[in-house]
Amino acid sequence: MTTITRFKLPDVGEGLTEAEVLEWRVAVGEEVEVNQIVCEIETAKSAVELPSPVRGTVEEIHVAEGETVDVGTVILSVRSSRRSGVATRPDSEAVREQANPVVEADPGAAGHAPMLVGSGPIEPIARTRFLRPRTGGTARTAVRSAGVPGEAGLEPAEAVVEPEIRIPIRGVRKAMVSAMTYSAFTAPHASEWIDVDMTETMALTRSLRDAPGWEDVRISPMAVVARALVTAIGRNPEINSRWDGDAQEIVRYRHVNLGVAAATPRGLVVPNVKGAESLSFRELITALGELIATARAGRVRPAQMEGGTVTLTNIGALGMDGGTPILNPGEAAILAFGAVRPTPWVVGDRVEIREVARLTLAFDHRLVDGELGARVLTDVAAVLRSPVSHLLHH
């Protein structure tokens, strides 16, 4: 007796409703083992590899590469014999006595092993379209073939290349477009900025890199800024909030889930460190380092993207001094950290060359006014000017 198992697209987490099939790792007629990776999909949050729930032979691939389908859609059918040890749900036992029963495989059900593993980055491929020429409109470059000897009167073929490339937006980048558009046109953004003497912060990071017991910790100025931001939020908890438009209420978060904006080949992602206010300086540095490495490798889990309360973006890593970032939806503030540069700076009654950076705070003006924003920036700057007393004893 054989059984055909229909493998449905699972909800890989956090209520996502659809995914794009990026690549099939198997072909029709190919033998597969339990937990063998059969395809890679991309959701609005990350790329995920899906394993086979059964052992058997690929009967049919129902969804083509590049196609986006809803959760619950059948994407693969696998034919298994009784000896293959097909893993089915208890409610499928009744149909196993038929000649060729069909089992609906739910990857999240008992007996299945989802083993969801994020994938690495994939570069977008631009496709050039070859179309028949249109009359009028934009000019195109026509490539005329030489024709075939002896076939006089036949028109040689033309390959017409359009002077533009269209790149489909899917997955993470599509989600980013939606989120940024929603935020920009629903939350009234306002920004404030301050230039900060980072000399002591830079000295601290250099000294800790060589300090005993810190050899395995990758410390950077951004980590100090992150700690300073969390400290400032502790002093000004009102900024750790969101606006509930339906209820016309301010919702204040009890914990600081610190998001870090990370650019990846798939688009911008903002994973977050949960409960950052409860972490020591060293623990926060470690958590940030792991999160950024995971994001750049394309292995962010959906749970790491959910529940952010405030965001930090390091535009200085790109050589930028300042900017006006767009809020992550569901948050009231985002802090942009600019490049640290040697700058003439007044110290007492003299001018010195100091290491200076610009901090820009963008906020939702419905629940954060200029006075609150200024307090937060001032508190962040105070920590960065004198980090030792603020950080090492936390």
UniProtKB/TrEMBL annotation:
<dbReference type="InterPro" id="IPR001078">
    <property type="entry name" value="2-oxoacid_DH_actylTfrase"/>
</dbReference>
<comment type="similarity">
    <text>Belongs to the 2-oxoacid dehydrogenase family.</text>
</comment>
<dbReference type="InterPro" id="IPR050743">
    <property type="entry name" value="2-oxoacid_DH_E2_comp"/>
</dbReference>
<dbReference type="InterPro" id="IPR023213">
    <property type="entry name" value="CAT-like_dom_sf"/>
</dbReference>
<keyword id="KW-0450">Lipoyl</keyword>
<dbReference type="GO" id="GO:0031405">
    <property type="term" value="F:lipoic acid binding"/>
</dbReference>
<dbReference type="GO" id="GO:0005737">
    <property type="term" value="C:cytoplasm"/>
</dbReference>
<keyword id="KW-0012">Acyltransferase</keyword>
<dbReference type="Pfam" id="PF00198">
    <property type="entry name" value="2-oxoacid_dh"/>
</dbReference>
<protein>
    <recommendedName>
        <fullName>Dihydrolipoamide acetyltransferase component of pyruvate dehydrogenase complex</fullName>
        <ecNumber>2.3.1.-</ecNumber>
    </recommendedName>
</protein>
<keyword id="KW-0808">Transferase</keyword>
<dbReference type="InterPro" id="IPR000089">
    <property type="entry name" value="Biotin_lipoyl"/>
</dbReference>
<dbReference type="InterPro" id="IPR003016">
    <property type="entry name" value="2-oxoA_DH_lipoyl-BS"/>
</dbReference>
<dbReference type="GO" id="GO:0016407">
    <property type="term" value="F:acetyltransferase activity"/>
</dbReference>
<dbReference type="InterPro" id="IPR011053">
    <property type="entry name" value="Single_hybrid_motif"/>
</dbReference>
<dbReference type="Pfam" id="PF00364">
    <property type="entry name" value="Biotin_lipoyl"/>
</dbReference>
<feature type="domain" description="Lipoyl-binding">
    <location>
        <begin position="4"/>
        <end position="79"/>
    </location>
</feature>
